[in-house]
Design brief:
heterodimer; A: 183 residues; alpha+beta; Alpha-Beta Plaits; 2 domains; four-stranded antiparallel β-sheet; 5 helices; B: alpha+beta; five-stranded antiparallel β-sheet; 18% strand; rod-shaped; Transl_elong_EF1B/ribsomal_bS6 (chain B); transmembrane helix (chain B); coiled coil (chain B); membrane (chain B); PilO (chain B)
């Protein structure tokens, strides 16, 4: 009896199974290796996070040990911020006050002066009405008080017929910053 | 008739069943390993992001730590700056210091300080921060020559602490002197000490910001008045109206 065909089929099957077995082993080893690699990576990352967190805590302790420095720095920062808000809004009247004597004609004496952030009210006496006009002119003259005052308004004028002395009240309006900024 | 098997014929080894068993075992093992690995491995991207974030935090905190160590070496200089800013905007409750300062400026400017009033809280506080803050009103009446009054006002406006005049009233008196009344506003601020984790939350870069630097320089440039406190004065006297 010729057994060759059946022998050949059986041999092929055996060969197939041998290769299939090798491939399976190879695939399984690869899969297991990948899985082991992934697990290793996962635990390595976790360990990395733990180490970094521990380092952060150590650095925190080092920083916290410098409490005095940090509190001083904090006070500087907070107070500097407050200073930057308060200082620009501080009104300064002294430059304005020192300008007033330059505007007064000779023979003029002030009795009172009221200064606020919008205007200066001058009350006083002088030798003639012309002096009051001069005062108002000089106050708005660009070469004299014009950079400070926008306008001069006569509020009151009274002449004593016996002495010709003039009692006056003049309001000088201050230029505001936005007005100056305009072209 | 039965087929006869030649004696020299090599039959294939019975590997089929064994190899199937090995394959099944290996694939089974692989599936088990995958099942175990999957839940652990699926967190890898998330953990990787976390690791990167932690590393970034670590780098930042190391930088902060280095800065803090460097700043600790400059503590004397920092304290001077802090004191200058505290003089400019004092802690609340320091009104008596301001009173003393005004009195000293009046003496130095050779004007008479006729009255100095505390007019209470003004409600015009310009400081808007989370720290404790407040502003109070003060009223001053001084008299002297116009020139001296101008000098007094100029010194007050450029001195520490920051005192903001609201308006001015000048009037001549019978003796020929000029009397000047000034309502003033003084701002106060208390910076509470930092605690715990807030200590490391300070943005140290703000220390060298142009705004902080300019404010500190300006505060340092403001005129400082020092006082000698007399602690030797006795308590209790026979006539309360006699010195």
């Amino acid at each position: 009896m010729n057994l060759m065909p059946s022998d050949s089929a059986s041999g092929s099957r055996a060969l197939y199974h041998r290769y299939a077995q090798k491939i399976s082993i190879f695939q399984a080893i690869i899969i297991i290796s990948i899985c082991v690699g992934l697990l290793g990576a996962r635990f390595a990352i976790s360990a990395g996070i733990k180490v970094s967190k521990a380092s952060i805590e150590r650095e925190k302790e080092i920083i916290l040990a410098q409490e005095t420095t940090l509190n001083t720095v904090n006070r500087i920062i907070v107070k500097a911020e407050a200073f930057s808000k308060v200082a620009p809004s501080q009104k300064k009247f002294s430059p304005l006050l020192s300008k007033i004597p330059e505007l007064l004609p000779s023979g003029t004496i002030l009795q009172s002066m009221t200064v606020n952030e919008l205007s200066v009210m001058l009350k006083g006496s002088t030798i003639g009405a012309l002096e009051v006009a001069k005062l108002m002119e000089v106050a708005t003259d660009p070469a004299k008080g014009g950079s400070t005052f926008a306008d001069a308004q006569l509020q009151e004028l009274a002449i004593d017929p016996r002495t010709n002395e003039v009692q006056f009240s003049v309001m000088l309006q201050l230029k505001n910053d936005s007005e100056e900024a305009e072209p | 008739m039965k087929p006869t098997i030649p004696s020299n014929l090599k039959l294939p080894r019975p590997t089929v069943k064994r190899s199937s068993l090995v394959m099944i075992s290996l694939w089974g093992a692989s599936i088990i390993v995958i099942l175990i690995t999957y839940p652990l491995a699926k967190k890898i991207p998330q953990l990787h992001t976390e690791l990167n974030a932690t590393r970034a935090d670590l780098a930042k905190i190391k930088e902060t730590s280095a800065q803090v160590r460097q700043l600790s070496g400059q503590l004397n200089e920092l304290t001077l700056k802090e004191q200058a800013l505290t003089r400019a905007i004092p802690d609340s409750g320091n009104a008596p210091v301001i009173f003393e300062q005004i009195q000293k400026v009046a003496t130095d400017s050779a004007v008479s300080l006729n009255s100095l009033n505390y007019t209470g809280e003004t409600g015009q506080n310009k400081i808007t921060s989370t720290s404790t803050e407040g502003s109070v009103g003060l009223g001053i009446v001084v008299s002297g020559t116009f020139e001296r009054l101008t000098k007094f006002l100029e010194t007050i406006e450029n001195a520490s602490p920051i005192l903001t005049p609201e308006n001015l009233n000048l009037a001549t008196s019978e003796g020929g002197e000029v009397s000047m009344s000034i309502p003033l506003t003084a701002d106060f601020l208390i910076v509470p000490p930092l605690s715990g984790d807030k200590l490391i939350q300070i943005d140290l870069s703000l220390l060298n910001s142009p705004q902080t630097d300019a404010a500190t320089q300006n505060a340092l440039g403001r005129q400082e008045y020092k006082f000698n406190v007399d602690t030797k004065s006795g308590i209790g006297k026979r006539d309360p109206f006699v010195r």
